[in-house]
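Figure caption, in words: inputs first, then the predicted bound structure.
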Amino acid sequence: MVGARAIDVGYFNVKHTHGRSGGADGMLQVASFPSVAPVLKSGTARKAEDEQQPQGCVVPVNGVSYFVGPGAPQRGSGLESRIVAEDYAASDKYLALLRGALWRIADGANAGTELVVRRLALGLPLTTYFEANELLAQRAAGEHLIGPEGNQRRVVVEKVRVVVQPQGAIINFGFLNGGKPLQGLTMVIDPGGGTLDWYLSEGTVPYWERSGAYPKAMLACAYAVADRINPRWRNQAAIIDRIDQAIREQKPSFAVQGEHYPMAEYRRAVDQILDEAIDQMLTMVGSVDDVDQILFTGGGAGVLSSHLYKRLPKVKKISRIDADPVFSNVRGFHVVAEHDLAASKSW
Ligand SMILES: Nc1ncnc2c1ncn2[C@@H]1O[C@H](COP(=O)(O)OP(=O)(O)OP(=O)(O)O)[C@@H](O)[C@H]1O
Ligand SMILES: [Mg+2]
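Bound structure (magnesium ion present):
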């Protein structure tokens, strides 16, 4: 049995926690794998059964076998895309990714064929939170049979809490800050793979009307580059990863099959997507003059913050970028799960 755990099933990466090393105040251990879940044909599922699989596991969902884990992009047909669909959290792929994370959590806890997770915290973007959070909590709670037929593990999740994604970053910041919450009006900007989320709050009070999400972020930037060269690359996760890395690390070029593509030619396409997302955000937020601080989180934090500073130079001095932005939300979710667990024990 394990106590608190958290999973952040993003459009780009799935992030999850393994608990704290060295007791309650120890470092929170985290890990991630790509949000890619190729469907295995029955033959491949059988073959996978016989092999040692450090790079992933077979996950059955509604009679279909998926392969999920760090090695998933290599397991597929080479045609696995990360589709940014609004009903993501209700999809079978999402459940396959969530179960893949539960499998890795069980590995991390050295569990045998059974594991009970007492509290699991998950997140949803603001665009889908209100319509999807109850359904997601229902799907995630209870029993999950994971692994190839005949060699399955049973993971039981006792209770689930669903958090608005950017709240994770705020909670994580407060936690790292010795429990001191941020003062004044805080705006979290979370450019992920699929969505740009922004969230304004004062203390623990959210400003819902000014918060929101837009379904274009880092993947849309990479797709815009791919579309100008070969639109079929959208379905090739490995090539999209290469373009994404070139954007994130501001590389001069990226290579596919020995051919080098200079990024300078595609910068405008990327900038257009960033501008479009920022425009949506600023329209909904209204003026940022009353914002006391901006916290950038999510894997696109570096790219989006530099673009925003070009447009609004004055916000730079009130901005900070999370040290490990890919994992800040999941770390915050984990703190929520720990609190829920502690509260349940004090009854
Ligand atoms: N090791 C890494 N270090 C820094 N950035 C990374 C790393 N791996 C991936 N990224 C970046 O993270 C971005 C994805 O961010 P993130 O993981 O926050 O998205 P997500 O949470 O999966 O998506 P969403 O929030 O839209 O569902 C990618 O564009 C990629 O460039
Ligand atoms: Mg995210």
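The first strand starts at residue 2 and ends at 9.
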